[in-house]
Write a structure and sequence with these properties.
Length: 288
């Protein structure tokens, strides 16, 4: 199993200008990661993505750091003015970027759900007739470019393992699978190890993420914390510092023979470089 890091882990440093994606590539290689994945791309100037993506790929090649995945947002219900066909075309452009990066896979979201102003039914079952043809169109296009596509348990509406499983089976395409984020199941108050066990047969890629947790009946802990669907409190943590049952989740991956990439996605309050450094040390130790 290869250990990677998502560039999202450095996003605070990108926003402040302390680090560019090229700095992140060098730091990731210096820390000893096997691979890197990119959460969108962030050119510092007016460089078009068609030029910037090959530059990023060349920088990774120079450091001997393969690109394992490319992660982008999407919403086939609300995106592109609510026109799912236009959203498909936009996401296809992201697939082209993944291809330029040489990434073997690309994760995109499904939807954040129907707007509350929508009259009538707004359930996950009502979303499937829109999501399925859109996602299938994207993955069929991506398959021709050698890029596997996947959805992540992310965004509350499509975050429960049962919903993700129903979606991937409804799309029913060998090029479409799941990016399992071990920690994200807590956002919908689901047991991570149970959820990983349900989705591991469909896994193309896995995120290692940790959270500090507090019950919703506790005093509001303030800045840095957010609420789960059920009203509990979560805060991003260094892998190994929080309450996600990492050992159980890793055991499930091992028992099912998962030998793909396990990428750390850090979103804690600690300095990002410390977060990904300590997380890597911990994850290596747990896997060992």
């Amino acid at each position: 199993m290869q250990i990677g890091v998502s560039s999202y882990s450095y996003s605070r440093l990108f926003r402040s200008g302390e680090m560019t994606e090229f700095d992140a590539i060098r730091k990731t290689a210096e820390l000893g990661y096997d691979v890197i994945e990119f959460s969108s791309l962030h050119p510092t100037g007016d460089e078009p993505f068609e030029q910037y993506a090959p530059d990023v790929r060349a920088a990774c090649d120079e450091t001997g750091l393969p690109i394992a995945n490319y992660t982008v947002g999407a919403d086939f219900i609300n995106g592109s003015g609510g026109d799912w066909k236009r959203e498909v075309e936009r996401v296809k452009d992201e697939v082209r970027i993944a291809h330029l990066l040489g990434a073997p896979g690309m994760r995109h979201d499904a939807t954040r759900g129907f707007p509350v102003s929508r009259p009538g039914e707004r359930s996950f079952d009502d979303a499937l007739p829109i999501l399925v043809p859109a996602i299938r169109a994207v993955t069929e296009f991506a398959a021709d470019l050698g890029v596997r596509t996947m959805v992540e348990n992310h965004g509350l509406f499509c975050q429960d393992s049962e919903r993700v499983e129903r979606l991937v089976n409804a799309v029913n395409h060998e090029n479409f699978g799941v990016l399992i984020d071990i920690g994200n199941f807590l956002c919908v108050d689901e047991s991570p190890d149970t959820a990983v066990g349900r989705l591991i047969p469909y896994a193309f890629h896995v995120h290692a993420k940790d959270f500090h947790t507090r019950p919703g009946t506790a005093t509001d802990p303030g800045e840095g914390w957010f609420r789960t669907r059920g009203g509990n409190y979560l805060r991003g943590a260094i892998v190994g510092h929080g309450e996600v049952p990492l050992a159980s989740c890793l055991h499930v991956l091992s028992r099912h023979g998962y030998d793909g990439v396990l990428s750390i996605e850090f979103e804690g309050l600690e300095h990002p470089v410390d977060g990904v450094r300590i997380g890597l040390d911990n994850l290596r130790r747990y896997l060992g």
